[in-house]
Design brief:
Number of helices: 28
Distance between the termini: 67 Å
Oligomer: single chain
Order of helices and strands: HHHHHHHHHHHHHHHHHHHHHHHHHHHH
Low-confidence stretches: 1-12, 438-455
GO cellular component, one term: mediator complex
GO molecular function: transcription coregulator activity
InterPro entries: Mediator_Med24 (IPR021429)
Number of domains: 4
Protein name: Mediator of RNA polymerase II transcription subunit 24
Mean pLDDT: 81
Structural class: mainly alpha
Pfam families: Med24_N
Length: about 600
């Protein structure tokens, strides 16, 4: 397009544009250096809060007024681009719109500016999106090819043959400089893969230039110019011949920490505590092959990631997730890996991995001091319990850890690893106790965590649920259940208890009070499970998908820190809402109302809050 077709600056930026033009006039009059220009321009941009992306348009409008470009202004534009005051693509995209080859010296000036910018782009500046930069470089080469093509076509009917030859020389040299850079070639490969349509247009321009060189018009070109065009095209064709490397770019087995394995372990431990272990195993096996990691190094990286997580976790819930993953889920994953590779000696590989981990003595000491227990010895014990290490290997590792540790750690009975291991043994009894619950059978003894499976009556169940929610018991039990794949079963039992505890018509006395307390505790436990592990723990169960809690949580329970709007729903019985408000204001016990089911309390209280 013609220079005049460069769109004028928007009216909203008139003040900013006028100040830049005034500064430009002063710089031209006083012949400022590039650095002086940059310092004064930055103060104008900061004072006007202007969009610095408009600067290329303002400067090019002034530089391309006459038949020859203003070299001083072109130099100023080059300086603010290379000093990263403006993104390089904002200047290159504007230059690509210029196609007025009737002003050859302006075209040559822009080609030289393009060469200077594109060959000195910093790909780590962070000013441009990576894909945007890739596409911009491809369009820049496309523009250079179009300059060559249009110049060759215009030579037939023009008296400015020498000027057009200069354009072809400059564009060929610029294309060669840009495309000969290996970094640029990689970016062009990304652009080719990202946008096939634009790449085909670019490829067609290259083909058209090659075809024009074979026509009679090319006889007007000096042999040196032809040679420059051919060399540039050969260099640009390297992008299409590139292939992804089949070998790893670097060997990572010697690195202190393998980021890929560390990330996979962290995602599984913190974000997917209740997920199935098989996808995690598949990810580890794929990473092992891609990174060419020996199996002992893989085990070492997994274990190191676990201890780093235990050391770096900031709060108790995250610490429990890491402890449950390390001491319960990880041995389970390694046992599955052993079953999938029966011909491989996992014991020896795990022994070597643990031996390599023991070289990280400061890390192990920090974790054991923080958790107040001999964490590595407990983990080795879990591996031995799962038949991953034999007795001799177990004893050798424990003896080495004792020698490396020096001072013996005083083990606390409340340490997370100890509590996790202890609650793993109690969890089956707890689930059995919840399963055996029936209000028809008389209980024989009070419920405790050690005889949880003996809970039969509502009173026994009430005692058991109170024990589960006292202290940190519930957090430990939920962490164990999520890591062993039993969280869904535990939640289903609580839903069943919650459904049973909905008070029936006419029921009074102690049984009614027990039902209310059972409903209250089971309801709060289910709310806690849903908020920590997600509502999907409750919803998928077909048996309880129509339960009160699943219905209530879907409509009312906040998710991801966002509250749900109740305006889309209407109360099932407005009279009960009014009655509830009336009695609460008068101070009457809620249990004496005609609202006889606990689920109706929950369903109607939200309308009560809205009314207040």
């Amino acid at each position: 397009m013609e220079s005049s077709s460069i769109s004028p600056v928007k009216p909203t930026s008139t003040s900013f544009a006028s100040k830049v033009k005034a500064l430009l006039m002063r710089a031209w009059r006083e012949r400022w250096s590039d650095h002086q220009w940059g310092v004064h321009l930055k103060s104008v941009v900061n004072s006007c809060n202007g969009d610095s992306k408009e600067l290329p348009e303002i400067l090019l409008q002034q530089a391309l007024v006459g038949p020859n470009p203003n070299a001083l202004i072109i130099g100023y534009l080059q300086h603010i681009v290379l000093s990263q005051m403006i993104p390089p693509c904002s200047a290159l995209n504007l230059i690509q719109k210029y196609d007025d080859i009737s002003k050859p010296y302006c075209t040559i000036g822009l080609i030289e500016l393009t060469d200077a910018i594109a060959c000195n782009i910093s790909v780590t500046s962070g000013m441009e999106s990576s894909v945007v930069l890739c596409k911009c470089l491809q369009k820049t080469l496309h523009w250079l090819m179009m300059c060559i093509l249009q110049s060759m076509k215009a030579m037939k009917d023009s008296q400015q043959q020498q000027e057009y030859i200069s354009i072809i020389d400059a564009a060929s040299v610029a294309a060669l400089h840009i495309a000969d850079n290996t970094t640029v070639q990689a970016l062009l490969y990304v652009a080719m893969s990202e946008d096939q349509d634009n790449f085909r247009d670019y490829e067609q321009a290259v083909i058209n230039v090659r075809g024009t060189l074979s026509q009679p018009v090319s006889d007007m070109l000096p042999s040196q110019t032809k040679q420059k065009v051919l060399i540039a095209q050969q260099t640009m064709s390297k992008v299409q011949d590139m292939a992804l490397p089949s070998q790893p770019l670097c060997e990572v087995s010697h690195l202190g920490i393998c980021p890929t394995i560390n990330t996979l372990v962290t995602l599984e431990a913190v974000l997917n505590p209740s997920s199935d272990v098989q996808p995690f195993i598949d990810q580890l096996c794929v990473s092992e092959r891609l990174l060419h990691l020996p199996r002992p190094s893989l085990y070492c990286e997994i274990l190191r990631a676990c201890f780093m997580g235990l050391n770096n976790c900031a709060d108790t819930p995250e610490e429990l997730k890491w402890a449950a993953f390390t001491y319960l889920k990880l041995p389970q994953a390694l046992r599955y890996m052993k079953q999938q590779s029966p011909n491989q000696d996992i014991g020896e590989d795990l022994y070597q991995g643990l031996s390599e981990l023991m070289n990280s003595v400061p890390l192990l000491d920090l974790v054991e001091i923080k958790l107040k227990c001999e964490c590595l010895k407990f983990l080795i014990g879990e591996f031995s319990k799962n038949d991953l290490l034999d007795k001799a290997q177990t004893q050798q590792l424990m003896n080495r850890r004792s020698a490396d540790c020096g001072t013996k750690i005083e083990t606390s009975s409340h340490a997370s690893p100890i509590q996790i291991i202890r609650n793993e043994q109690q969890l089956p009894k707890i689930i059995k106790g919840l399963s055996n619950f029936s209000h028809l059978d008389p209980g024989k003894e009070s419920a405790t965590l050690d005889n949880a499976d003996a809970s039969k009556t509502p009173s026994d169940m009430m005692s058991l649920l109170c024990l589960l929610t006292s202290g940190r018991n519930l957090d430990f039990i939920l962490a164990v259940a999520s890591s062993t794949g039993k969280l869904l079963g535990l939640a289903s039992k609580l839903v069943k208890i919650n459904e049973f505890a909905k008070q029936t018509q006419g029921e009074m006395g102690k049984m009614a009070q027990t039902r209310i307390m059972l409903f209250d505790i089971s309801f709060l436990m289910l709310c806690h499970i849903s908020q920590v592990y997600g509502l999907e723990i409750i919803a998928p169960s077909p048996e309880y998908s129509d339960s009160f809690f699943a219905h209530w949580a879907t409509r009312c329970l906040p998710e991801d820190g966002k509250y749900k709007c109740i305006d889309n729903f209407t109360p099932t019985d407005q009279g009960k809402v009014d009655l509830l408000i009336q009695h609460l204001i008068s101070g009457v016990d809620v249990n004496k109302l005609n609202i006889t089911r606990m689920n109706e309390y929950c369903l109607n209280f939200r309308w009560l809050y809205k009314r207040f």
